[in-house]
């Protein structure tokens, strides 16, 4: 009996600690649920490319902003897609996502942009058979000029923008020009899809989980001139992080097939699927925003199309893909990476294409 009594006090203490921990967890849970919702805009939400359709449920489930962040989703599309847009709204309601606190489906750009904290610009004009490059650019310049003005006037002051629609870099550049009150660093374009494709190719080459591969780089334009760079990539092994290049042991593959596979992956998917990438594009858009808002893991960088500050000899003002780290909602270009002659040439080629796109876009403004 005395032995049992001697255990009584420690058991009471342990019980109190467990009870206190449960109370703390409940308080944390309540605080998370009490977060004010963030408003996320998706343009082109009912588009034929299906990126918006794949993206919207991921946002509603917390894949973009975290499992405890409530969201309000604004969906914008053109008038001919209004019926499909309302059908997407119906499906969102039917899915009963706990984090989803409201849905707006509209063809009115002002209504769509009002109070937006994050804008994912999926909508754009796709090139049709027989169209000249300048005609396509002119259409997109017109679209992004109008949407930039609406975001400028009606979005939240700290709104973060991700441009997905091609030509993504140049569409983002036009948006930046016509939304001057949105901080320059808050306008980005998607090259995370290419980044993820590069991770996947190295993962398959080495037969390791893709989660063990990090720090590939996509330099430049989201186009066939982009440069997927594996020179700084590492793979987590039992011995620690090791050079992906050394583990692969095939520089010829890394400088030829690896690059072209990543560059042409979108075209390969269109050929196989008869439609462009939707699932992977939506997933990478979530990755881009999540890391931007919540931060990149220590020792890891990702690729984002951002406004060049002249780093690595890239002309300032271009929307160019760099390796970046993110912390507290801000991105920073990774500095001091060694650039060999092969890489320098590839980086300059894609910068030249972006300069040409910029010139063409500005000519469309006139």
Folded structure, characterized:
With 366 residues, this protein is α/β, with parallel strands linked by helices. It has 13 helices and 14 strands. It has a six-stranded parallel beta sheet. A hairpin with a 2-residue loop joins strand 10 and strand 11. Helix 5 packs across helix 6 and helix 6 packs across helix 13. The longest helix has 32 residues. The radius of gyration is 23 Å and the shape is globular. The protein starts with a helix and ends with a helix. The relative contact order is 0.11. About 1% of the residues have low confidence.
Keywords:
Lactate/malate_DH_C; alpha/beta; three-stranded antiparallel beta sheet; 48% helix; Malate dehydrogenase; six-stranded parallel beta sheet; 366 residues; NAD
């Amino acid at each position: 009996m005395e032995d049992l009594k001697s255990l009584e006090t420690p058991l009471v203490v342990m019980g109190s600690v467990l009870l206190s921990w449960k109370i703390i967890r409940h308080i944390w849970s309540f605080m998370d649920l009490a977060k004010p919702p963030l408003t996320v805009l998706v343009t082109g939400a009912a588009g034929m490319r299906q990126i918006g359709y794949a993206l919207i449920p991921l946002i509603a489930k917390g894949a973009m902003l975290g499992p405890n962040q409530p969201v309000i989703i604004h969906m914008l599309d053109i008038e001919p897609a209004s019926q499909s847009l309302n059908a997407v709204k119906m499906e969102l309601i039917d899915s009963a996502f706990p984090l989803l606190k409201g849905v707006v489906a509209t063809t009115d750009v002002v209504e769509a942009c009002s109070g937006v904290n994050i804008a994912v610009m999926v909508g754009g004009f796709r090139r049709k058979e027989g169209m000249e490059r300048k005609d396509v650019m002119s259409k997109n310049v017109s679209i992004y000029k109008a949407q930039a003005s609406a975001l400028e006037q009606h979005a939240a002051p700290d709104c973060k923008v991700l441009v997905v629609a091609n030509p993504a870099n140049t569409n983002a550049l036009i948006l930046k020009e016509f939304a001057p009150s949105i901080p320059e660093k808050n306008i980005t374009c998607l090259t995370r899809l290419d980044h993820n494709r590069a991770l996947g190719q190295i993962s398959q080459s080495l037969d390791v989980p893709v989660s063990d591969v990090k720090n590939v780089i996509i330099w430049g334009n989201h186009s066939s001139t982009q440069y997927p760079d594996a020179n700084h990539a590492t793979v987590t092994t039992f011995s620690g992080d090791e050079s992906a290049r050394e583990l692969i042991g095939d520089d010829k593959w890394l400088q030829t097939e690896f690059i072209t596979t990543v560059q042409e992956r979108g075209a390969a998917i269109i050929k196989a699927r008869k439609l462009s990438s939707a699932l992977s594009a939506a997933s990478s858009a979530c990755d881009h925003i999540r890391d931007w808002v919540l931060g990149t893991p220590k020792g890891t960088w990702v690729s984002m199309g951002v406004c060049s500050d002249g780093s690595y000899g890239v002309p300032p003002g271009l929307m160019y893909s760099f390796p970046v780290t993110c912390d507290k909602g801000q991105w920073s270009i990774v500095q001091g990476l060694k650039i060999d002659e092969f890489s320098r040439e590839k980086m300059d080629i894609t910068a030249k294409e972006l300069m040409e796109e910029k010139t063409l876009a500005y000519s469309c403004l006139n």
